[in-house]
Design a protein that fits this description.
It comes from Malurus elegans (Red-winged fairywren). This protein has about 240 residues and is mainly beta. Helix content is about 10%, strand content about 35%. Among the domains are: about 70-165, no CATH class; about 175-230, no CATH class.
Length: about 240
């Protein structure tokens, strides 16, 4: 469907490249489709590709796009947002070739107070899950649902906070990080990445992906990881 229908309609380059952060990735992997022992193998058995019992191999292509919009710190001082505010576009139709097309909105309360935020239009369903030991609630908009585009020819999901404007403190996430470049040249240049875990008692595994600036050359033998003042060996 390209940019004619579906979620790809929102991918306007002018808005994406002016965001606070964006990342594109393409993942390709072989997946055993038919095995001698099992009639059909689903997409989770990558190890069966090397097995002689695998009769047919398919290739799985997964494309991801991660974008971060920060309206709160851009001078507006509000946490309200909408699809049109972020992408300058709205969803007009679903892609006929898509077997699944959904939008998830995190509506989890940030404190013991209830009904701090509202989303519009009403979602087609609500989904609950546990993420990093914390219960999350998501409003789900199913673009394949016939009732979603009946009332309007476009879908502009909006989130508004009912919290008073004098309370503008952003909650600190459980896992967050910051990075800075220190020194200069190949001799004293270094990249420092600080990862914080604010959970009171739980530890989490962390996968770190570094994008190295072109003017820095990394020497892997100089890598040091320090946790609470002690050196930590990564896996």
């Amino acid at each position: 469907c390209s940019l004619q229908a579906g979620l790809a309609v929102l991918l306007k380059a002018e808005r994406l490249f002016h965001s606070s952060y964006h990342s594109q990735a393409v993942h390709i992997r072989p997946v055993c489709r038919v095995s001698a022992g099992l009639s059909v193998i689903r997409a989770a058995c990558l190890f069966l590709v090397q097995d002689a019992s695998c009769l047919a191999v398919s290739w799985e292509l997964r494309q991801t796009l991660t974008v971060v919009f920060d309206f709160f710190s851009s001078g507006q001082g509000k946490k309200d947002w909408s699809l049109f505010k972020m992408f300058s576009r709205t969803l007009t139709d679903t892609c006929p070739l898509a077997s699944q097309s959904q939008v998830y909105i995190d509506i989890s309360p940030k404190s013991k107070e209830k009904e701090l935020l509202e989303v519009s239009p009403p979602p087609t369903s609500v989904y609950e899950a546990v993420v990093q030991g914390e219960k999350k609630t998501y409003a789900v908009y199913d673009l394949l649902s016939p009732s979603l585009f009946n009332t309007s020819r476009s879908l502009n999901v909006q989130l508004k906070w009912k919290r008073p404007q004098d309370s503008l403190e952003m909650p600190i996430p459980i896992l967050h990080a910051q990075r800075y470049v220190a020194g200069y040249g190949l001799q004293t240049g270094e990249i420092c990445t600080l990862i914080y875990n604010t959970h009171p008692y739980r530890a989490f595994p962390v996968i770190l992906l570094e994008t190295v600036p072109w003017y820095l050359r990394l020497y892997v033998h100089t890598l040091t990881i320090i946790t609470k003042g002690k050196e930590n060996k990564p896996s």
